[in-house]
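Subject: Protein record for review, amino acid sequence with backbone structure tokens
Why sent: The fold of this protein is of interest and is recorded here as tokens.
Enclosed: The protein record, placed directly beneath this head.
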Amino acid sequence: MAQRQNGDFLYDAFISYSHSLDDKAAGTFQRGIEHFGRPWYRSRELRVFRDTENLSASPGLWLDIQRALEGSAWLILMASPAAATSPWVRKEIEWWLENRGSDRILIAWTDGTIAWDETAKTFKWPDSDALPEAELCRAFPAEPRWVNLRWLREHHDVPLSDPRLLSGVAEFVAPIRGKSKDELIGDHLRRRRMTRRVVGAVITGLVTLLCGAILMGVLAVQQRDTASRRQLTATSRQLVAEATSIQNTQPELARQLLVQAYRMSPTAQAAGALIGSTAIPRVIQTGSPARGISFDPRGRILALATNKGVVLYDTPTAKVLVRLEQTEYTTALAFNRDGKLLAVGDKDGLVQLWNVASPADPHLLGTATTTGDSIMGLAFSNQAPLLVVGIDAAQTGVIDIRDARRPRLIESMPPIALAGLSEGLAVSTDGKTVAASGEEGTVRMMSLSASGRLTVLETLKSPSSVLAFSPKGNFLAAAGSDYTGRLWDTTDPSRPKQLTVLNGQSLGFDALAFSADGDTLATGAGDNTIQLWDISDPVRPRQGSLLTGHTYSVTSLAFAPDRGTLASAGADGATRAEKGADSTNGTLRLWNVDGAQSSSARTSVPSGHISPQAFDPKGQILTGGSPSTLWWVARGSQPRRLATLPTFNQGGQWVSYSPDGRTLAAGSPLTLWDADDPLRPTKRPGGRPMTDGSQVVIFNSAGSLAAAGDGNGGIQLWELQKRSPVARAKLPSSGHGDLAFLADGSALAVATPDDDAVQIWDVTEPSKPTLTGTIKQGPARLSALAASRDGSTLLTGNSYGQVTLWDVRGPRNVVRRGSAERHAGSVAGVAIHPEGRIAASTDDEGFMRIWDITDPAQPRETAALTLSGPLGATGLAFSPDGSTLAAAGTDRTLLWDMDLTGIQQRLCSESQRITRSQWAQYLPDRAYDPPCAGK
């Protein structure tokens, strides 16, 4: 059976019930749970323990029941007065509360009365006669949900397809499977329909066999192929679901399952999962617990300190660059500002300075011996060539590194005495303030002079096992073993002010890290989780994604400078000892993040607001933002700024590429630019703007005509002759900003000012445009539109979250093809892939959905991707070659890979080949044939 979120439990649920009252109802209930959502090729989907069903005759009945309780993930209580007085039921509840607690108890109400007292925060006793008062009096901290199944006792012989049974059972399967009830019922009904189709196909084939031997043979082959394709499709979808459920706990296996799913059947679901696969973390087995992580300022190199020394990794590929010699049992490390110097501390109190300007050939410059036994923290000061050192558990000091070949511990002042110092050491961005852990949950705030003298300014009462200064402003994060973290305003380090308290994780904090822009804080805890926080408003921080997957405490965290990668380390891994960590295990995880959210985007650039024609023809350059900027975004390379165009529109503008990529049209003022040299775009001869300003501008497919909107609703047509634009007609009807050329560029779709319709204009003669049709959206407000590359299909989005496809091959006879309403908020942007089989849409709630529009009458959602918060209607575009999808917000643009072949190659390169035992678990009916055979 496939591994579930309930881990390795033998049973998904244990049913506790009264034999005298609910024996028959319990049997029907058990079968309903086990068969709910069951694929046709499985005997059951969930395993449920019921004593009369699963126990054989045994002299030790309670021991058998106790073993079953221990092997169950959930307890389902069939509540009734008979059950409340049953000694067996009460004993089972008592065991569960003592060993598991109440958060995994589900209640099925079959008889009697249940009532909740909100004031007393418990059930109303003795009115609640269906529950045992002694056991459940204070078991639940808040009102639990119970499901009314009283009807089932009198109708226990209902079929498993009965709607009442399906609805009731779904209430219990949903928390067990970790899915919503609506999603489960939808999956269940889809699988039933699939089973019916397969059975119908087989019956049809059998009837057809009677028509003759030759026809029988032909149809048999056809039916076999159809059944095989359907089975492959079903298995492909199942593998996608399995990969999604284990992508954090077993990321390498998840990658292999996704590649195999697409290989078996390139379904829309498999394609969508591949597009979003960048969210799967990369895991590196370090072979030893990590003591520290640090990125160089460019983010290209990641340094890891372990019990076996320091290792340098290439961040983009996660490959080992070099292992530093003469380093052993390292405890701390740090890069200086330019990334050319790496400081390493070890357990013997030795500090080494390494020249890593050439990462492939590092060399040791000098060493300094401290007065302590172990180096527990290192931080460079940016105001002077100084290195602040946390020395074992008693003191902190400063090393003069003006001559890196002869570093020396400054002797002109005694080290500041501290107690309990571990990783609790941080230096502010300006290098003038030092924070260090003190005794009994305190933080010592110290000033650091350019000469290296430390002076205690203030002592804070705050948990302080880990400390970090924000690179943005004067904020200090401090956290410790009391399960809370605190943000302090240290503008005046002698009088810090507490801003807020962070909590939510358990077992204490072991690691902290700020993103390069200071807007995100990551906290690693002893419960093996990483919590991302949006602290753009430090007084009101917001929880972002919770990253899970480590199986031991998260000991170290670090953000890459581009804020798109978070590195975490813990003493877990494949070689983990039976009862915890050992000296040979450890993992380094690289998470793809965007702000405080886990991200599936390949990369991002710090500028938003893009046009539908934002890419050059090769998809390697992206334009957008305010000021308008050209970015190099080719796959396999880090984004870099190429050039900036002047603009006077603070809200951003569209910058569009002509189809041949040689011309740029920028909006405020509306000007044409030569783009042959993207590093130095130049204005066209004359340099005079076409108009004072324009928010939107697009080219037709031939590049001979441009349409520009001025932001006030006016639409001007420009004919581009001999490199000089000629103003043609201004449409008598105005638009609100969304434009799209249709057909071969001879028609133009314009969103009207009232935002409830689309006007179609014939622009065959640009000087005499003619209104040929209007598309009505109904009561919803039109919010977005885009056209396919060939101009035959128009995609619109509205304020009700609906996307609609229109056949516009005859602009005078527009035909509505199909629609889907999946967005919770208003549709903010839409785009169609150049090949016309895929579309994308975003909403103002911060989500993007990918659609399969192969059949325009029935658009099917294939993936839902998070955009890390609301982006607004500022742009969505596919690159002309179809390999990249860009979604823009007000401050950044996210990019996704759409090259499915390239994605599969990447997934194979980032994972080990699936093993025979894993293959047998997920594909037991197929011969071992790994998808990444070359690995």
